[in-house]
Amino acid sequence: MNLIEQGRRLAVAREQLSITKNEAGEAAGLPATAVSRIEEGGREASFHELTTLSNLYCRPFGWFSLDEWNIEDDVALALGEIVSCPDATREIRIGVARCLRVCREAAFLEDVLGRSERLRCPIYRGPAPNSAEEASARGKQMAERERERLGLGNVPVANLTELLVKLGIRSATLDLPRSIPCLVVHHPNIGVAVLANAGDSPVNQRFHLARVYGRQLMECSVNHGGDDGMNELIDSCANAFAAEFLLPEDGLRTEMRLLGKGGSEALDRATLEDSLESRRTGTCARIINFPDVALIAHRFGAGYPKVVHRMKSIGCVNQTAADRLLSPRHEAGGEEYLRMLGMFEGYGAPVVGANGSRELRGHVAHLGMEAHRRQEISRGRLFEIGEFIGVAGSELVDLAVVPRDW
What we know:
Layout: H1 3-16, H2 21-28, H3 32-40, H4 47-56, H5 74-82, H6 90-112, H7 132-150, H8 160-166, E1 169-174, E2 182-187, E3 191-197, H9 202-221, H10 228-246, H11 249-258, H12 269-274, H13 276-281, H14 290-300, H15 304-313, H16 319-325, H17 328-340, H18 358-373, H19 379-388, H20 393-400
Helix pairs in contact: 1-3, 2-3, 5-6, 6-18, 7-10, 9-10, 14-15, 14-17, 18-19, 18-20, 19-20
């Protein structure tokens, strides 16, 4: 790569993260004037300087050194989605860039370990849907088959982020502009990365992750060629997938049976409450109320309104009951009930300090140690990976060389 093009790419990468020339120079051990000369193409950067700057800008080294690297890099692709947002601060942009570098490390390590093939999405073949109804039915069917494939049965998914990481979908939670609940990046360097907004509630984060999961499965199964009409149907399929995957019908019915609920909502509630016979037989006690919905929502890690809509879609409540449960008074009552039980934090309210990607970083650390044991990467490379993901590099190296009989 010629120095002019290399300098241009270095300048673009620095400016996209709002890093000053002084800051870049300090990291690389250079005066700001030398950084300017490199960006203008008047000075060649040494291998050490180029490595330092590529790490600082969270870009692949090859993007600054190889002529054949002519595709848009993953960080620029992601930042293009948020650059127009007025609250896309420097810290947010750097956070996105760093997270994508972790995703890139995961993809690289999976490749050197020969695991890339194992992480491909399953293909659920079938005709392309022609209507929203067909798309929804397809999404529900895919969710049922995927739960069966993963051995989940009808129980709640305990940690969706960890599950997606293991399936090759890089997922993390970090600060994003308020107008972006979820940032999805498709790129050859990383595959699919899903970055959920840390300012959103955990239940909304889970739904966005499940929705992307369903969309990815559908795109692997149907060749839609970018058709707008098919894109809308794939969105319908993804929504239905997320609802069924997070709130499986049989799981919801089992949960309601355990609570002694259901089976009475088809009747008029006022009539039931005024009936002495219904009180004697316990019919009113079987009516689903907001504490029941709140507990089920917490157990399955789904939003209160989504649980009500799901109950209605599978016939557990009628329209009158759904309207009652979705009233502001009842929804607020469900939230207060969970707060009273100490269950709201981490469910309906963002967890303070939860910004990060623990599961993804753990995945990368494990892959890095395995690659080092197989002599696919050097000790120094493992040290570098550890330092970047926030683990003491020396400790990660020591763990990787622990004797098998230790």
